[in-house]
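Database export, one record per block. Field names are fixed; values are copied verbatim from the stored entry.
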Amino acid sequence: MRPAFARYLGREGEEMGDHDRKDHEHARAELVDLYTAFETLPIDVTAAGTSTHENTASQLKVLARRYKTLMTELAEHMKIESGQQIPR
């Protein structure tokens, strides 16, 4: 799709493709980071009420916010792709 942007829309198409690649790389990197962070959390159900449990809960809240932010960004990206770029 990106080569078609450049071919049919010229410089504007190249810029659209560059922006698209940047968005995709950001999303990929954030997903890898989130996956790694979730995988390394110490999930110990016997630790409820301890500082380890509270720290894990705090980390989960941060990761959940990052995940929600990423999903919002992806929804906007898809809306732009399907609503503004593709119909051109």
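Remark 1: The helical segments are 2-9, 11-40, 51-85.
Remark 2: The chain has a mean pLDDT of 84.
End of record.
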